[in-house]
Amino acid sequence: MDSDSTYNREVVAVIGLGYVGCVTAACLADLGNTVIGVDRDEGKVRAISEGRAPFFEPGLEDLIRRNTTAGRLGATSNLPDALESATIALICVGTPSERNGNLDLQQLLRVAHELGDAVKRRGGKLIVVVRSTVFPGTCEEMIAPVVGGAGQIPIVSNPEFLREGSAVKDFFDPSLIVVGGTDAQSVQRVAALYAPLGIAPNLTSIRTAEMIKYACNAYHALKIAFANEIGALSADCGIDPIEVMDTLCNDHRLNISSAYLRPGFPFGGSCLPKDLRALVYRARHLDLQLPLVESVLPSNHEHLNRAITSVLELAADRIGVFGLAFKENTDDLRESPAVVLLETLIGKGRNVRVYDPHIRLKEIYGSNERFIRSAIPHIGRLLDISLEATLGWAEWLVIAQKPSAECEVKIRASGIRTLDLTGHFSEFIAQARPHVAA
Length: 438
Ligand SMILES: NC(=O)c1ccc[n+]([C@@H]2O[C@H](COP(=O)([O-])OP(=O)(O)OC[C@H]3O[C@@H](n4cnc5c(N)ncnc54)[C@H](O)[C@@H]3O)[C@@H](O)[C@H]2O)c1
Hints:
With 438 residues, the chain is an alpha/beta fold. The protein has two domains: 11-207, 3-Layer(aba) Sandwich (Rossmann fold), CATH 3.40.50; 303-432, Rossmann fold (3-Layer(aba) Sandwich), CATH 3.40.50. The chain is 46% helix and 11% strand. It starts with 10 loop residues before the first strand and ends in a 6-residue tail after the last helix. Residues 15-21, 38-41, 44, 92-95, 107, 110-111, 132-133, 160, 162, 164 line the site of nicotinamide-adenine-dinucleotide (NAD).
């Protein structure tokens, strides 16, 4: 594909020549690298050595023939041979499911042992890249100790996103490239393998790189299940499912976009909970099981429980809460998760005060005033009239609503210990929940 001499070329050993390894090996060779594929399956090794694809994948056979003929691609069943002059080793072996759903890492651990032994004998630096799908922590906790090498063998995570059936096309026109690791030089070297593709790689921590593969696959599966559930309900209501989902996809601001995809506080308000309940009620009425749609409110509730638990765990006598309405720039308190948070804290006997820039008892009127005075008068009594008052009183500030720029400046300047439940101040999330921090 590319013989531009401006790019660095590497000598790459690709270990495991299944769907991922074989495509990766052939494509990297086509970008001008020297690639030696390794597999314990002699049939696959023979096929590639003879310039054939070991399985059907559009475009793969041509690629293998062209690159074996050019002398850039070879295959062997002997790992030490493949590593002799390799600068990078890409591990692409299978990580199948065990019966309980856990990952079976046997193939991966065996390769890690073999790599450790081979590098010990060979000496020198080798970048080991895990391309197989593995759960976060695997590279650091399981692969690095087995490979060993005392810093001479940096481990990098570079998950694969190709889809069978369009794998070669996906390699050359990737939707996402992720490279994670702690050794910056190695991360750059691995990222540079993809430089000829002209797509900026995402450089992340090693655990984020491992996690992102699961997040992507779960998201893709979620999208399919969502479309099928909405489709089934539409069809049962006599509505064209395709027209519904095609129209939904025409909204690129809120629907097909990054909107609502930042981890933070649970949703609430006068629309989402009510409309989900109505959808679930209607589906049940039609004897239609929609487990995904039905699980959304319980999921939101569980997230609120986690938020409440993290507040209850604070070692503080005086807890200030920023935000009472269900989101910023509104005084709507209907189904606000912050109200539930406050009620729980009060119920547990915590000493608490709250500030919301848009809720001042003297200024609000209508349904909100009635709601505060009749349904939550105990919370109304805890409302501060200024942020300064809450900051001056509290030991910890719990952020339950995205603050305005002005409020953010005041919160930061106060130096108060802060538990951010909104994902707005990402540094505070890591502080307050150390088990979540990278
Ligand atoms: N198939 C996909 O579409 C896809 C896409 C993205 C990521 N992944 C992930 O990539 C990884 C590989 O998937 P795959 O579908 O290519 O697997 P696969 O089962 O098709 O291939 C694995 C290969 O590794 C070889 N192997 C096993 N142990 C070995 C050893 N010790 N030495 C040399 N070779 C060895 C096997 O013989 C086999 O050819 C998995 O973690 C998978 O989850 C797969």
